[in-house]
């Protein structure tokens, strides 16, 4: 398993998808024009992902340490959530900078596990990986479903063995990265727990997404945010 996939697997499966909210637009929607942030803006926001305080615990805990509350963490981590959203909204400028920060080991945030209620800490690099994943793997929400026990089943795109993810993110356009993964997902066999009708609809959605990228030469717009706690 690649380092990047390992980080994303942890984000999705450990957090139970509570920590990351993504809306993907496709079809005939018009893409709104917006002011593009500068490289310096994005560097500032990446630095803002780093928590000025030390991690309140190590590993995974069922209860927060004495003196640490959800309300205090939410207030402390609000600027981090804001920076995360800014980077997500300016992904085409931020992408190569996020790529360079995937190994940033500075403490960022406390998260709640959506399935178990446990708490764990994540680094700046892990948050950067979450933003990158949401924007390049736009196919994945379409082909993700939950089993009866709540565990997620999905398709994992694997870059070629000799491919550097950081180099890919630095050198290629976001639309190209998205289209490559959509085309790959369209060719995969049906995930067992999907019904035939569900899988047919998933493929139809992927077809629409691929068509939109080809016709506009623009990436699929993604509205992606972070939520640290389930309450």
Describe the structure.
- The protein is of the alpha+beta class and about 230 residues long.
- It has one domain (about 5-25, about 35-225).
- It has eight helices and seven strands, in the order H-E-H-E-H-H-E-E-H-E-E-H-H-H-E.
- The chain has helices at about 5-15, 40-50, 70-90, 90-100, 125-135, 165-170, 175-185, 195-215; strands at about 20-25, 60, 105-110, 120-125, 145, 150-155, 220-225.
- The strands form three sheets. A three-stranded antiparallel sheet has the order 2-4-3. A two-stranded antiparallel sheet has the order 1-7.
- It is globular.
Describe how the helices and strands are arranged.
Elements (H helix, E strand, L loop, with lengths): L2 H13 L4 E5 L14 H10 L11 E2 L8 H20 L1 H9 L7 E6 L6 E5 H13 L8 E2 L5 E2 L11 H7 L2 H13 L9 H21 L5 E5 L5
Antiparallel strand pairs: 1-7, 2-4, 3-4, 5-6
Key descriptive features of the protein:
alpha+beta, two-stranded antiparallel ribbon, 231 residues
Which band does the percent of strand residues land in?
5-15%
Binned, the helix content reads 40-55%
Q: What is the general shape?
A: globular
The Cα radius of gyration reads 18 Å
Q: Which structural class do the helices and strands define? A: alpha+beta
Which spans have pLDDT < 50 for at least 5 consecutive residues?
A: 9-18, 27-32
Give the strand tally. Answer: 7
What order do the helices and strands follow? HEHEHHEEHEEHHHE
Number of H/I helices = 8
Largest sheet: 3 strands, antiparallel
Tally of domains? 1
Describe the oligomeric state of these chains in a short phrase: single chain
